[in-house]
Amino acid sequence: MRKNILLPWNKELSYIIREIVETAKKIEHKKTIYWENIWDPVAKWEKIPQWLKNIVKNANEKDEVYGYCPTRWLDKTLEYVMSKNSKLKKTDILFFNWLGDAINKIYKWLAFDSRIIWPNPAYPTHSSTEAAHAGSFHITYRLDPNNHWYPDLEELENKVKYNPNIVWILVINPDNPTWVVFPKFIMEKFVEIAKKYNLFIVVDEIYEKLTYNKEEHYCLSDVIWDVPGIAMKWISKDLPWPGARCGWIETYNTDKDKNFADFCHSLLKFKMVEVCSTTLPQYVLPEIYESGDYKNYLWKRIEKYKKRADLAEKILKDSKELKIIKPKGAFYLTILFDKVDKQKELKIQDNEIQNIIEDALVGKERFDEKFCYFMLGETWVCTVPLSWFNSDYDGFRMTLLEEDEEQFIQILEIIKEFSKNYWE
Ligand SMILES: Cc1ncc(COP(=O)(O)O)c(C=O)c1O
Q1: Which residue of 237, 384, 401 sits with most ligand 1 atoms within 8 Å of its CB, as the best mutation to test the pocket?
Q2: Measuring CA to CA, which residue among 331, 307, 417, 316 is closest to residue 38?
Q3: What fold does the segment set 63-290 form as a domain?
Q4: What is the pLDDT of residues 62-83, one digit of tens each?
């Protein structure tokens, strides 16, 4: 008889935040969907600026962008990244094709019983890959919506103190899905706990450039002290070019811990097996980031997200059912339920849609899943339940990406009205 080919932890690996899209597609023939689950600015109709296209077009004329590049990086890109951070040595930088590429190497190269502690809510690409690798549930520390989404540091410390398997603390700053941007004292506290318990620290800094109040953001390298750590940097959020699949990691304090240095070296060897990452995005990265057009463009985008966040606060502030903590970074809006009856049932007018929604909800037990699916069936607004971000809180996530301000306002009004009627 043939042997089973599945690993026992296969079921821990999921990217559930796309699942509601399948249901939306089934009802799309009836009316246009408001795709509020999307985090891709291009899919949300952001126009790709001509200056960016020109840089890429000019690079495309050069023969060298069609070849392999060195495993770690292209020299000119490395020089550029190093020029921005005096703490970095040449060997501290390693380019990847995208976050998933880095995740696959970093988490899969960990010993099976070495665990990472995640924020709750957490971005599931990280947490589900790590949990699948460990063949167990993810371990989390709570971000507290009643305290600006700051972490429960006591819980974090207790968990790392009593679980010797935890070797890394993971932080996302600014965060997805909560928008939180951690102040310096919190970043220092993460590092302090890592140091006290001899742990490593990883910070995903993908939204680093998208803070609404620049001086509030502190990178890992600003606070790391002598603790071994990794910062993850990607170009897919501050540039409307997620399809470039380009990013890099920066390792700090490899000289302070041999085990950490050996681990980082194993990442390099693993990368050597696949030769190198994509050449073109690395090649144009310094020119893009140094261009005046980029700085203007980034500023305009941040202003737009800030304005959307102000609008969301204004529209939802008198809602009795919904609660937001106003975003300060990234481009998400997480909406929580405020003291509502979670037993309330809903009937959708259209029987065909009611059946599709009920089918989709089979096996789903959380209240926010029911709410999001019914809201989709009744209003055509497609959002993502917060429980899909491994969250203990019920709520949902939409974005601040909508290009058309009128449409953004309309979507929020629809959500507000739907929530009011739901509990009437
Ligand atoms: C915190 C965080 N890290 C990484 C990623 C992955 O980005 P990409 O798929 O563009 O590499 C995302 C995407 O939404 C994210 O929110």
Answers
A1: 237
A2: 331
A3: Aspartate Aminotransferase; domain 2 (3.40.640)
A4: 999 999 999 988 999 999 999 9
